Amino acid sequence: WKPFKLCNCFKVIIGLMVKSLSFVKPLYPVTPSRPPSTVSYVERARQHRWQCSDVTFHCSEGALRQQWIQTIREQLTALTSRPKHLLVYINPHGGKQQGECIYEQKVAPLFACASISTDVIVTEHANHARDHLKTEAELKKYDGVVCVGGDGMFSEIVHGLVSRTQRENGVDQNSPEEKLVPCSLRIGIIPAGSTDCICYATVGINDPVTSALHVIVGDSQPMDVCSVHHNNTFLRYSSSLLGYGFYGDVLADSERKRWMGPARYNFSGFKTFLTHHHYEGAVSFLPATDILGTPRDKTRCRAGCFICQHDGQLYSGDSPEESKTAPDVSDREYEMGWGVVRGKFLAINAASMSCACPRSPKGLSPAAHLADGTTDLILVRKCSRFNFLRHLLRHTSKDDQFDMTFVEVHRVRRFRFTPRHWQNDSELDLRENGKQLFSQICRDHPACSCSPAYSSWNCDGEILPHAAIEVGVHCQLIKLFTRGIEEQPLFEDLANPPCAL
Fold this sequence. Notes:
Blueprint: H1 6-15, E1 37-44, E2 50-57, H2 62-77, E3 85-90, H3 99-113, E4 117-122, H4 128-136, E5 144-149, H5 151-168, E6 186-191, H6 197-203, H7 208-217, E7 221-230, E8 233-238, E9 241-245, H8 246-255, H9 263-275, E10 279-287, H10 306-315, E11 334-335, E12 338-351, E13 375-381, H11 385-394, E14 407-419, H12 427-444, E15 457-459, E16 462-463, E17 469-480, H13 489-492
Parallel strand pairs: 3-4, 3-5, 5-6, 6-17
Antiparallel strand pairs: 1-2, 7-8, 7-17, 9-12, 9-15, 10-12, 10-14, 11-12, 12-13, 13-14, 14-17, 15-16
Organism: Oncorhynchus mykiss (Rainbow trout)
Pfam families: CERK_C (PF19280), DAGK_cat (PF00781), PH_CERK (PF25382)
GO molecular function: ceramide kinase activity
């Protein structure tokens, strides 16, 4: 038979990055003495979807056929970026409770086809994966960790891996100024949750097969992680969204309505919008002045992002900004490079990525980058319900969602929020007093103009116990089995595909 050049064939098989291939039909009939050989490869489809396809080789000479097979196997073995042994955690209760079914039917056959061995653990309770990674898992024998579930499951994996890495390297996580050690193992995400925001914002689609193929080919995408502290005590890590005010209230209310299922988010969101609470406080932040991008850029973070590469390399060394501590909010508006914003806020959001999802394809901050060492701090001041609704609707439109007088956005490396009347150890007492004085009234009369003293911080879908927090961004702390969202126009036209990439 007469295929295209053998070297191009190897590029297709080894790279596993082919859009479409055309092969000449075999010149010899298939017989038991000349069995065909099938090679699986990755094929790009539309809307960032990947799929697995097969190509069959026919050869009349048995010795030549074995030589080809052996050469292909040797070349694939030499690809060190591809994982060979994975630790898999499955959340059987996330989303529509289809995690085990998705893994067994769609993912496990692909891992087996790629000769990837797996150790599978089905989680039995909350934080099962986190605690196992922190203490029991023998991480040295794995090439990566895969989570089958939603954003909550991914957060468990991040906390387990990052905490384990810091403990083994003697890093004190309770110190906000401490520089954390990056994790060596990559994390794969098989979407099986309710929103799967992390997967959507890093791959461009929530498809288990596509995510599994990214793991198989050994892609790698660094990602920033924020650490959250209160009074020099570590609280949590955040990889996507920190939200105070509106998003914190939505989460706090929805947690009391878990019996409603996924519909509780819509109900709580509508109720919180009608309540229209605002919260008073001060936000101090360290702006990222030595970077290429801004929150209002038209350029989006995509595969091979130049901004992430440039800013990540720049920030990997010791930065003079990193040692600066936040001034007291009583100081003037700018001191030691820090800015201070005081006022009444409907929402305070920190987006470390676009936070895009199927319902909001642009996300909270469309120009946010995955690995530039910054987070986009979005401040929404008190305004009318109508204007706030306009702001929320901008998340689903093509308009600039920051082009409003009551909205401001800053790209920062660190920030701190101090609510009004906050006094260190008495914060919890004040929160309880606020609940007693205001919460029941506002719960019964959502249209009233009064507001409770404090909101809650929504940290990647978990409620933080304190309102006063300090947040720092750790550049490229983790790596994912993905390559970022690829520019779709490059692969839309499949009319005349090349033979190989």
